[in-house]
Amino acid sequence: MTSASPSGRRTGRPRSAEADRAILDATRAALVELGWGKLTLGDVASRAGVAKTTLYRRWAGKSELVVDAVAALFDEHLELPDRGGLQADIEGVVLQFAALLERPETKTALMAVVAESTRDDALRARIRSAIVDRQKTLVLLGRERAQARGELPHESDPGAADRNADLIFDVIAGTVLHRTLVSAESVDAEWARSFAALVVGGLASVGTLP
Amino acid sequence: MTSASPSGRRTGRPRSAEADRAILDATRAALVELGWGKLTLGDVASRAGVAKTTLYRRWAGKSELVVDAVAALFDEHLELPDRGGLQADIEGVVLQFAALLERPETKTALMAVVAESTRDDALRARIRSAIVDRQKTLVLLGRERAQARGELPHESDPGAADRNADLIFDVIAGTVLHRTLVSAESVDAEWARSFAALVVGGLASVGTLP
Amino acid sequence: MTSASPSGRRTGRPRSAEADRAILDATRAALVELGWGKLTLGDVASRAGVAKTTLYRRWAGKSELVVDAVAALFDEHLELPDRGGLQADIEGVVLQFAALLERPETKTALMAVVAESTRDDALRARIRSAIVDRQKTLVLLGRERAQARGELPHESDPGAADRNADLIFDVIAGTVLHRTLVSAESVDAEWARSFAALVVGGLASVGTLP
Amino acid sequence: MTSASPSGRRTGRPRSAEADRAILDATRAALVELGWGKLTLGDVASRAGVAKTTLYRRWAGKSELVVDAVAALFDEHLELPDRGGLQADIEGVVLQFAALLERPETKTALMAVVAESTRDDALRARIRSAIVDRQKTLVLLGRERAQARGELPHESDPGAADRNADLIFDVIAGTVLHRTLVSAESVDAEWARSFAALVVGGLASVGTLP
DNA sequence: TATTAACCGAGACGGTACGTCGGGTCTTGTA
DNA sequence: TACAAGACCCGACGTACCGTCTCGGTTAATA
Fold this sequence. Notes:
CATH superfamily of the largest domain in chain A: Tetracycline Repressor, domain 2
Largest interface: A-B, 52 and 52 residues
Structural class of chain A: mainly alpha
Largest sheet of chain A: none
CATH architecture of the largest domain in chain A: Orthogonal Bundle
Oligomer: homotetramer
Order of helices and strands of chain A: HHHHHHHHH
Helix content of chain A: over 70%
Number of strands of chain A: 0
CATH class of the largest domain in chain A: Mainly Alpha
Strand content of chain A: under 5%
Number of domains of chain A: 2
Number of helices of chain A: 9
Shape of chain A: elongated
């Protein structure tokens, strides 16, 4: 008897991990060269040296593939180094996020998959778990640090705390996104300083209210 | 600036204004039913009772058509009623913008055309002039009113004033956009109040700094 | 009023007769080069300088297209020159038919479409009207001539006459087909003479029976 | 002559004879259900409860497999019972051959593999040895019997005798094939009688010629 | 009022990509 | 070594849209 792995497939040739990697790399390269609109799955497959069927066996379509391809970039490039103070931490994450959004593959892909996700719940869930929620942990971590430093009070009502974190997350991510992709202007250190000051000021004033 | 465009055509049958209207209406209807991704120009044409030729004579492609179709909604539905105070004005515009973004045609279209525009300068310019700049005037108007009420100081340096308005615009538009489309959560009066308080608090604290 | 062609399409761009011709030519060329098995409609289209859609607008599939393409060859190359006697006429048509079946495009195509037609009634009808029935008229014409010459009696029962013609048709066409494609041996003048003698002898002996 | 083919493999697991049988049965079943055109080797393998590898180890492709599958039917169902006279013997073999060709698996397969064989010499050889030559022995046997009965003379020139047998074979097999598959009409006893009469009459008249 | 140039609908056209299917090969674990 | 399973590469399938191009026919400003 032995084995009987509960869910896993047991027989047949196993899927090639090499192929997975090659496909995601090819997807990012194609995004850089062609952008979302002109990217085709046939082209991705041939760049990856892989048959189209191999690609479709793993991903249901362009959107799902691109989400996974750019999610890896978010994992690699977003972190929250401790800069010693709340405003400096915010500046840091803003600059990091902006740098990510200015990469050609991210810039062209992120808005597109979000647009698709407005009509596709499964895709939205995938974006949320692969990209959005991971960014949000940075906000939570930043708050913890600020509270440890005494820069922010400990919130007594946990519901209010969550709402507050969500708000701050939308403010930071949304503002940088809009600046970068809609206004199409670059984020430099000075802009990051101004924006972080605004947020910190806002937090301070809100914190004083009951 | 009367009429008589010097090089304009003079003879022949003029274009049907009826057709323009029918096409834009059909575009919005198709966006609601199908979303950006599944919208096809052939379908728009047949909904509008119009030949594809007629459509292509007026718009270069899907993106341009959709920008014009949703721009009309922005023109119709965005304004800045005077609610008597800066924070209330911000709350009002936030709720209005959120309501617009929750319409199915806007939700699916706006991110998509922005995504396309990351690779197409002409499209970006069209979006800017047809949609973005018109929203920005609301920010400028709001500032004027707040200054007239004495809620905000007059900025002496015009460059700094512009930068400030741009920042506030990115904060407001970006946050609402992110909340609505990325976080996919609705904007209610309470959220609008919290967010507006944050912005006003931030503005106050920044205003006090040199 | 005037026109109103009852069934014909009136509006829109008319179909290109040039395309029809180019597609059939390309089909024959591809049959020669590749044979039935390796012939693809995409390749035919590109040889013809035509889009695949143009091809599919006219023909439902490979079989239908090939039937039409080879039918044209039958029309061009089968006739019944009067050689002055029944046996000589049969020899002539046998040689002609064999020459047709030895062309590479016919050889590879005819059996293939007949094979397909065993499962497709519409295809069988198409083959019958485009190819088979036209050959059969040669048999009927040959009989008329032979009767005019006094070589064959006039059949009094029309049903028996039809059955007889069908039989002779199956004998002639079938034997040549089998010799050429199944036995895969060539048909020369001597073989044609032997075969025609057999048929004429058989006819004579049958004719003497009640 | 038992086994022990000199160069044959000796070690390892021997091939399953069960699998061979299951594959050929599955092939015939699939031919009946799907016809040649829609028959796929993957489907045959799964019907047979066998991996595709196992199938490809034994046959090079669809054509070869189908030739073997239908050849078995020819072996089973063709024989030449002695009916006491040349014409009756011919009628018998005609009816038998026609019955075979009216089976769905034979009907759809035979023309298809012959069509393939026009471009594939190895396949043609396989068809010849597995199917055609076995039918031809019936013709030779029939001639022997007729000569024994005194219905046909002994041919002095062996070359002419071979040519004659080939001709009669093409006439009989070809005519039945054409009647059944091209004309798509059934072969009944009366048609068989007419046709056999024609052949016997032809043979008689030819026999009298030098 | 007649001319005439630009418009209009319909739909065929050459393309490109789609997502699926089948062919034949290869790579697992098991017998 | 064979076997079942199933992933692999390849190439064709038939469809859908793209944006362009004829068609025959209409319409309004101009001459």
